[in-house]
Amino acid sequence: MTAAPTRHQLFSPARVAAIASNTLLELVRLKVFYFMLLFALLIIGSAAFVVKFTFQEQFQVLKDVSLGAMSIFTWLLAVLSTAVLLPKDIEDRTLYTILAKPVPRFEYLLGKLLGVLTLLLIASVLMSALFAGVLAYRESLAIADARRGTPDDQLADALAAIRASTFQVNLLAGIVLIYLKAGLCASFTLLLSTFASSTIFTIMVSVVVYFIGNVEAVARDAWLGEATVGSLTKIFLALVALVFPDLQLFNVVDDIAAGAALPLAIFAKTAALGVIYIVVYFLGGYFLFQSKEL
Fold first, then answer.
1. Contact 81, 30 (CB under 8 A)
2. Confidence (pTM)
3. How far apart are CA 232 and CA 229, in angstroms?
C-alpha cells in the first residue's frame, strides 16, 4: 500500500516565522550592523554632553540629535540589510534549496521582509532605550541645577517646566513614524532586489528614491503653484506621487524636538500610509519575484 502524498498548507505561518528568524540571524551576523549601531549609539550618547544652554535648549538639541541619528541609522540599516538578502541567497544557492522544500515564493519573500522589520524593531528599541536614559540623565542634572539656583517660591514651577521639556508623548509617536519610514524603505528595496542585477544597483536606486521622496512634496508644491502648469505636468506629478513615497510626511523630528504637538489624526493617517506603502511595495515585489526565472 502506497502512502498518501503529504499535503502542504497554502500558507504556513510557521514556515514564514522560520524564514524570518533565519533572516534575522543572518543580518545580525553582518559586521556592518554592529559598526552602524555603535555609531548611532555614540551619536545619541554624545548628546548627553551638550554645552551650556538653558535646559529647554539642551533638551531640544538632545532630541534633534537623537531622533535624527535614529532616522538616518534605521534608513541605512533598512536599505543595506535588505539589498543583500536575495543576491546572497542566490549566490549561496540557499534560495533554490528553500524553494525546493517546497516553500511558496510568497512565504519566502514575506519571511525575508519580516526578518528585516524585526531587525529594525530591535535597533529602534535599543536606541530608544538609550535615548530615554540620556533624557533621564539630562533631567537629573537640570533638576539639581534648579534646586541649587532657584528660589523656593519658584522651584515648583521650574521643576514642572523641566519635566515638561524632558518627556513628551510626541517622542513615542515620532519614533514609531521613524520605524515605519525605515520599514517602507526596506519594502521598496526588497521590491528592487527582485529584479535588480546587483546589490550595488539596488542600494544606489534606493538612495535616489529616498532623496526623491524627501523633496517630492516641495517640488510638487512649486510646480503646482505655477500658473502655466499643464495637464501633462499634473499627470506626471500624480504618477510620481503614486510610485515614490512622500517621505517628508514622516519627517516630524524638528517639530517634535521643538515641542510642537502632533495631532492624533495626523499621526494615525501617516502611520496608516506607511503601512499601506509597505504592503503595496511588498506585493509589487512578490509579483515580480513570482515571474522571475530561477
1. yes
2. 0.85
3. 8
Task: Identify the pLDDT of residue 249.
Answer: 80
Amino acid symbol at 12: S
- State the average pLDDT for the chain: 79
Rounded Cα distance between 264 and 229, Å, is 35
The answer, yes or no, to whether residue 114 has pLDDT greater than 90, is yes
Band (pLDDT 50/70/90 cuts) for residue 68 is confident
Cell digits for 123?
535597533
The CA–CA distances, whole Å, from 98 to 87, 109, 178, 254 equal: 14, 11, 33, 45
Report the amino acid identity of residue 250: F
Distance, CA of 288 to CA of 193 (rounded, Å)? 10
| pLDDT number for residue 182 | 94
CA distances from 214 to 36, 189, 263 (A): 22, 16, 22
* Residue in 260, 195, 226 with CA at minimum distance from that of residue 60: 260
- Model confidence at 23: pLDDT above 80: yes
Pick from 118, 135, 223, 224: nearest CA to 172: 135
20 contacts: CB under 8 Å, gap ≥ 6: 110, 111, 112, 114, 115, 118
- Calpha distance 193→289 (Å, rounded): 9
Are 285 and 279 in contact by the 8 Å Cβ rule? The answer is no
Amino acid at 14: A
> For residue 82, what are the contacts with CB-CB under 8 A and spacing of at least 6?
112, 113, 116, 186, 189, 190, 193
Measured in whole angstroms, the distance separating CA 166 from the mean position of its chain's CA atoms is 24
Judged against a pLDDT cut of 60, whether residue 5 lies above it is answered with: no
Q: How confident is the model at residue 1 (pLDDT cuts 50, 70, 90)?
A: very low
Cβ atoms of 170 and 85 within 8 Å: the answer is no
